[in-house]
Each structure stands twice: as C-alpha cells, then as structure tokens.
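Q: Please design a sequence for this.
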C-alpha cells in the first residue's frame, strides 16, 4: 500500500472531524500572525528610543502593553489549538482501533490461524500509537510551520524587499542539511526499533519458557543470542543518537550564517538611511522565525512517513476479507439431530484432510471421536461450530443447514469445553457467567458444585468476587471454571475436546460423573486421547486421515480387533 493511498484513508477518517480541523487551522493562523506581529511592536518601541534623554515613554509603554496583551491572547490560542489537535488525533486513532477490533471479530479463523497473535496485537496497539504520535506532531507543527513561513515572508517583504529575497535564496541550504540528517536518523531509529523488538521477544520467550530453557540447558545459547542483539542495539542506538544530535547544531549553524548576513546587510541599509534600527531588529527576529519551521517540518515529515507506514499495516488488517456474509435467519434452540452429508474439507488445496465424511447423529447421542494426531478430530469440531466452512457437502442441525442460519444462533446451541482454557481478567463470577450475565449467585454456585470447582472457589479470598488473571490459578482450576461455565448454560448440544486433560485422576472421576449428568438427553461430541474416558459413549468414531474407518460402541470395536482395538490396547500397555 503506497503512502499516498494510506494518507488518503487517514484523511478520510480525519474528515469526520473537519469542524475541529478548521478551528485548529484558524487558531494556528491566529497564533502565528500574533506571534509575528509582536516583533513589529518591539521594533516600533525601539524606534521610540531616539537617543539618551530622548525617549518617548508613553509610546514605548503603549507598545509594551499591546505586546503583553498579544502574548496572553497567543498563549490562550495555542492552548486551545493543542487541545483540539489532541482531540482530533486521539479520536482518529480511537476510530481506527475500533474498526480494527470489529474487523478482528469478523475475520475468519483461517486468517487468525495464519498470523501470529503478536503481529495482530502490534498492529492494533503499537502501530496505532505511532500513528497517533505522528498525527499529533503533524497537526501541532506542520500547520503552524507552513503558516509561519508564509506569514513571515509577507511581513519581511513589508519591511525590506532586498533582505527578504536574500533570506529566501539561502533557505534551501538549511532545508537540505536538515533533510539529509533526518533521513539518516530515521533509518537508524528504524533499525534500533526493530532490534529492540527482537530483543524484547527473546526476553519474553526466555522468561515465559524458563523451565524448558533450564531443562535443556539452553541458558548459555540464550545469553549469546541476547548479547548479539544487545551489541546491535548499542550500535544502532549510538548512530541514531549521533545523527539526531547533529540536526540542531547543523541547522543552527546555517541559520546563524543567514542571521549574520541579515545583520550585515541590514547595518549597511541603516547607514544608507534605508532602514531603522527597530526595522533591523524586526528583520532579525523574522529571519530567526522564518528558518525554524523548516527544521520542524523536516522532522515532522520523517515522523509522518513512519506513522503512515504503521497506518498501512493497520489498514491492511482492516481491509482483510471478512467472513462470508452471515444469514439473517435465526435458528431456534435445537433438539440435537445432526446430519453430516458427504462433507469434504481442507485447510489448503494441496493437502487434503476430510473427504466424503458422512454421519447421522440422533438427539441425545454421545458421540466419541478418536484417532491419531492430525486425523481431523479438531477440524471436525471446527466444522460443527462453523469456525470453518466446508468445501463441499452439507452439515445440518435439526432441519437447518448451518450455512443458512446466523452463526451466533447456531453456536449458542453448543457448549464447548476445550483443552486450551480461556479466562478473561475479571472476577470468578464474570468468568463463569460469561455466556449468561444474568445468572444469579445461587445458579452459579450450583453449577460450580456440580462441576466440582466450588471446593477451590470457596477458599479464594473473596470467593466469586475474587479477581483472577493468567497466573492466578492452576491449569486444572482454569479448566474447572471452563466446565462450570458450560454447566451454567446447559445448551442442547455439547462439545468436549480433551476437557479433563489438565485435571487429576480423582477430580476427573468426579467430573465424569458431572459430565454424565450434563450429557443426559443432550447430543454430545467428545474428542478424547485417553480412550478409558469414552467407554460409555453410544457411538465411537475412529478417524484416520480425515475419514471414519471404524464405527460402533466400545465393546463392538474391541471385538473387531481393528484399529481402535490397537489404539486401546497400546494405551493399556503403556499405563499398565
């Protein structure tokens, strides 16, 4: 995405706040004009001091009073302008972030699975922060800088045409020097930022996986990797600081040369009677004011380029193709009949996964799905929930084709407990009532007791009101809360994907009893690696390479002495 296209998109969002933008430009113009008019008052005051003993105190006092009034007005206008600029910048970033979050919620799982979480979070948080800084700097300095240059030229020409033309002719020298340094500084800061990100990622990786690092003796290698990145960061930081520190003295040196030339030529004009002392002081002030914005604008352009580069990443996310348009048809609460008719699916065209898969499940049936890793068990669950759409064939729930109903109305018919637990930062009550915010404490406690999570909840400092985070609970406790969440909802169909994988054997027996109670009369799909947990299933589907190779109950499949029998016996041998 080109920077021009990105800029157009950013300007399109800024356009929503055009009234504030107009006010900002007007205030910038007022601020600049008043700031530039103050030197004229000073110059007139200086001209009021003719010689020793010949000072027009009334005139000088009048000009100084006006100057004080203008300074106060300018300060108020600058404060208002900065407040408006802040509001515009943060509102634009708020809108972009809101769009990005809404887009993430509409993106298909295929996109989220193919992009790292860190990359997506970085676009929404870090890149939009960079855009915010760039916009804020642009609004604050770009408008004021451009207006300052234009108004200064007008005021300078009103005082002396010759000196004004000389200043304009020397302008490119300062601009070229500032631009050269800013370009090199930007490159070094980019490398510095990238290396710092790699260093941060390494630190997070080492701390988050410290047990693995220690177990495999990776400490020395990790330290060497860190040292290498640290040296790179040191080198890039040194060069970045070096180039950035050159900007001010270099441009000031050029500006001082221009300032000295203005003083020299101005003094000659005074001697010729073509200029007053006050007039020269005004021109000197304008020469200084005129050059300063070029330095600011140079840094602003660099910052804006960086901001636009970040914005392009955010817009790429926002414009990513969302899920196929949802059907407006709302599905009623299901009875639990599921039909899978000749379904084929693959994540990529080159690698086939599920082919010609068919299955009829009557309401209240417990269906267990077993098979080796990569056979398609979790993919089958993803298709049932419509996290992915089938390539061909059809899945029906009761009399509804799942593609013909709204996704949310389909998914509210399922209760899912996955191997990977997910809890939000909040109270235990909020996490259990995630799918039913109106649940009473009595209902929550009842569900917790049935799920055997109440034992540890009641020992927490504030019981249901205890705030939990990622590291507040053990993996088993987290899974118990996820099970409690489903216990509270009791939807007509259940999906249990290794739901007791992080629970000790004693608690697992209790959970299985709770599951048996919960699954009674409900269609249930149970994905399990420990085959001992699915002996009571009505139907066991044995999958291999995306196909059902065996089907039946536990005793029937053992009697066949086929693939299931080998899987079961191999686990029995390992646990014996």
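A: Design:
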């Amino acid at each position: 995405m080109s920077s021009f296209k990105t800029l157009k998109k950013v300007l399109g969002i800024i356009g929503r706040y055009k009234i504030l933008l107009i006010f900002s430009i007007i205030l910038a113009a007022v601020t600049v004009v008043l700031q530039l008019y103050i030197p004229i008052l000073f110059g007139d005051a200086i001209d009021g001091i003719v010689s020793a003993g010949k000072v027009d105190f009334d005139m000088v006092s009048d000009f100084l009073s006006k100057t004080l009034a203008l300074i106060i007005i300018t300060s108020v206008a600058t404060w208002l302008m900065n407040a408006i600029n802040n509001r515009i910048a943060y509102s634009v970033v708020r809108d972009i972030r809101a769009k990005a979050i809404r887009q993430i919620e509409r993106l298909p799982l295929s996109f989220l699975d193919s992009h790292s979480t860190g990359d997506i979070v970085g676009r929404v948080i870090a890149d939009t922060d960079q855009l915010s800084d760039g916009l804020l700097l642009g609004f604050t300095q770009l408008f004021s800088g451009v207006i300052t240059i234009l108004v200064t030229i007008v005021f300078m020409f009103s005082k002396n045409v010759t000196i004004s033309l000389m200043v304009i002719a020397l302008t490119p020298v300062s601009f070229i020097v500032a631009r050269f340094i800013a370009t090199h500084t930007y490159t070094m800061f980019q490398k510095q930022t990238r290396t710092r990100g790699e260093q941060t990622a390494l630190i997070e990786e080492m701390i988050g996986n410290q047990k693995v690092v220690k177990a495999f003796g990776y400490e020395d290698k990790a330290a060497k990797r860190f040292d290498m990145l640290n040296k790179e960061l040191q080198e890039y930081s040194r060069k970045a600081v070096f180039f950035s520190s050159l900007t001010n003295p270099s441009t000031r040196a050029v500006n001082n040369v221009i300032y000295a030339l203005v003083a020299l030529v101005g003094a000659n004009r005074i001697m010729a009677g073509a200029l007053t002392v006050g007039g020269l002081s005004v021109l000197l002030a304008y020469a200084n004011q005129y050059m300063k914005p070029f330095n600011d604008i140079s840094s602003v352009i660099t910052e804006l380029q960086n901001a636009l580069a970040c914005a392009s990443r955010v817009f790429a996310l926002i414009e990513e193709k969302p899920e196929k348009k949802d059907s407006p048809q709302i599905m009623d609460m299901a009875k639990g009949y599921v039909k899978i008719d000749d379904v084929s699916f693959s994540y990529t065209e080159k690698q086939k996964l599920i082919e010609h898969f068919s299955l009829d499940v009557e309401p209240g049936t417990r269906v267990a799905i077993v098979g080796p890793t990569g056979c398609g068990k979790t993919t089958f669950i993803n298709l049932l929930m419509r996290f992915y759409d089938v390539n061909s064939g059809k899945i029906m729930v009761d009399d509804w084709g799942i593609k013909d109903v709204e996704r949310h109305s389909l998914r509210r018919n399922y209760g899912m407990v996955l191997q990977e637990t997910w809890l939000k930062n909040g109270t235990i009550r909020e996490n259990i009532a995630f799918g039913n915010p109106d649940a009473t404490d009595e209902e929550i406690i009842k569900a917790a007791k049935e799920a055997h999570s109440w034992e540890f909840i009641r020992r927490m400092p504030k019981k249901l009101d205890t705030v939990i985070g990622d590291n507040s609970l053990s993996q088993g406790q987290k899974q118990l809360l996820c099970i409690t969440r489903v216990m509270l909802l009791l939807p007509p169909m259940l999906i249990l994907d290794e739901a007791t994988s992080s629970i000790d054997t004693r608690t697992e027996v209790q959970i299985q009893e709770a599951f048996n109670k919960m699954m009674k009369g409900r269609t249930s799909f149970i994905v399990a690696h420990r085959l001992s947990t699915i002996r009571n299933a009505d139907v066991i589907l044995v999958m291999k390479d995306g196909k059902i190779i065996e089907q039946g109950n536990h005793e029937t499949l053992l009697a066949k002495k086929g693939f299931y029998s080998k899987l079961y016996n191999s686990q029995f041998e390992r646990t014996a």
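Q: Thanks. Anything notable?
A: The longest strand covers residues 338-345. The mean pLDDT is 76.
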